[in-house]
Amino acid sequence: MSRVAVVTDSTAYLPEGLAASYGVQVVPLHVVLGGISGQENVDLSPADVAAALTERRVHVTTSRPTPAELADAYRASRANQVVSVHLSGKLSGTSDSARLAAQAVAAEGIEVVVVDSGSVAMGVGFPVLAAAEEAAAGGRLAEVEAAAVAAARDTTTLFYVDTLEHLRRGGRLGATSALVGAALGVKPLLRVDGGEIKLLEKVRTFSKAVARLVEVSAEAAGERPVDVVVHHLAAPERADQLAQDLRAALPEVRSLRTSELGAVVGAHVGPGCLGVVLWAH
């Protein structure tokens, strides 16, 4: 019971096997497809939400885990100290649920520190991995928390969507930005900045969008070594090609993986989305 445990939510989208190998507890968010509710990556897959959005007849909504679900994860960690790392509080109430859960388990002798990553997908995942590595090395609670915070600071999250309509409907992007993105078939590039999704720039074609993703990623990396994850929703061939382009363009790549987005983020970005998350350290 002396070790520090790490808990996160399902929107971290860690590549397969990494959560288990580090002993990270993952708490699912909830997705509602056409009135039917399920847990992300448990009851509902990326393919389920991609099909629902493609049909355009099924309403898709998402919701945070309950404080009780997070409290159960803290107990299941079998640790008396926990660092709980979650997606941006400006995009979801998950961190709020985590803070309520922390209060609930405090009386049981479990101390929980909540870290708002200010990001999503591997923008959450890289801070989780940094925290887990520090914990595995015997780090104390403050050191594990600091590792997550530092990784969040050093992570860049970029993505491309075929349309901004899903983000607009989900309330994650202003209506004006959505209209600008839709105008004249413009292809939008976005960035998570200050915990919010912001329009980075607009290009005219998909090929130019991918080229700019690579260029902006290289600018963000500079000369620093980076770990990279390429995300996608229902677009594995696009993701594989983007990964190849990034490997050729970035000066020093420590690791490069692809990981499909789950149902929660997928519901807001739509099929065809491509994302690049870089951790420079």
Describe the structure.
- The chain is an alpha/beta fold.
- The chain folds into 2 domains: 4-29 and 64-153, Rossmann fold (3-Layer(aba) Sandwich), CATH 3.40.50.10170; 155-280, 2-Layer Sandwich (Hypothetical Protein Tm841, Chain: A,domain 3).
- It is 41% helix and 27% strand.
- It has helices at residues 18-22, 46-55, 67-76, 94-106, 122-136, 141-153, 165-169, 175-182, 206-221, 236-249, 263-269, and strands at residues 4-9, 25-27, 30-33, 36-39, 60-63, 81-86, 111-116, 155-160, 187-193, 196-203, 226-232, 253-260, 274-280.
- Strands 10-9-8-13-11-12 form a 6-stranded mixed sheet, sandwiched between helices. A 4-stranded parallel sheet has the order 2-1-6-7, sandwiched between helices.
- Helix 1 links the parallel strand 1 and strand 2 (25-27).
- Helix 2 packs parallel to helix 11 and helix 5 packs antiparallel against helix 6.
- The longest helix is centred in the C-terminal third of the chain and has 16 residues, at 206-221.
- It is globular.
- The mean pLDDT is 90.
Overall pLDDT metric: 90
The backbone outline, from C-alpha atoms, is: globular
What radius of gyration results from the CA coordinates? 18 Å
CATH architecture of the largest domain: 2-Layer Sandwich
Helix content class = 40-55%
Say what the CATH topology of the largest domain is: Hypothetical Protein Tm841, Chain: A,domain 3
| CATH class assignment of the largest domain | Alpha Beta
Order of strands, widest sheet:
10-9-8-13-11-12
Helix/strand-derived category reads: alpha/beta
SSE arrangement, N to C: EHEEEHEHEHEHHEHHEEHEHEHE
Secondary structure tally, helices? 11
**How far do the termini sit from each other?**
31 Å
Largest beta sheet, briefly? 6 strands, mixed
